[in-house]
Amino acid sequence: MTSNQDLIATPTAFDLAAYLTDRQPRVEAALDASIRPAYPDTIYAAMRYSLLAGGKRLRPILCLASCEAVGGDPDLALPMACALEMIHTMSLIHDDLPAMDNDDYRRGKLTNHKVYGDDIAILAGDGLLAYAFEYIATHTQGVSADRVLKAIAHLARAVGANGLVGGQVVDLESEGKSDISIETLIYIHNHKTGALFQSSVVCGAILAGATTAEIEKLAKFAQNIGLAFQIIDDILDITATGAELGKTAGKDVEAQKATYPKLWGLAESRHQADKLVAEAKTILAEFGDRALPLQALADYITDRKN
Description:
mainly alpha
């Protein structure tokens, strides 16, 4: 799992390492408690195997930080934060399958299908996706039903054909093609990656009772950092080792995927990621000190090493 020291990446006085030292264990404990072993043993073991495999927990922490940014109690958003990580984990399990990116390692461990087989891995992802929405509905407390419903609807849209699934489809259809435009590439990652980032931020704000104007600003912030995250991912696929990434390096080149470095080069890709994060942080100005965690997490997006 990524150390807190690796996540220090902000020029402000805000102590991101201390913030993560508090937030990460709370998220880990909540995830562990969210799915307990049960019958049939295999499916619950497979779901827990990938859900509890570590990682930065960036999406759930963004959800909690967004809730705080609009004056909410982050504990109210903890079930949503867990659900976001369940859905993110589902996407990783499915993305690693032989029919998709065909990877053997994720977060430094064998991928789900390498341990449990393709059939159980598919079902483990399905189980996590379905349970995520059940978990929000049954475990969110102290929040009005209309806010919970609004957040669930936003998240469901982000995961479906108009979001993560749609972005993945266009990504698969673009493999091996030499004429992919930057507009198509941005579409892919605003949906495949950015949609879940946006839901992480927006849903936390919705549960806290954010205004429409606040939600619009936070959605734009999240869109920027989601795209920056993917640009950095593309860079790291070229520049980092498999040990650093916790997964196979160079997969994008091998699969002939359209990437930002392929279209822009490494230097321009880094510049564009930095520009997106700078714009994102400007959007947060009106939220004041309550948005310092989001500001620091935005900086981390471009400074991370894996």
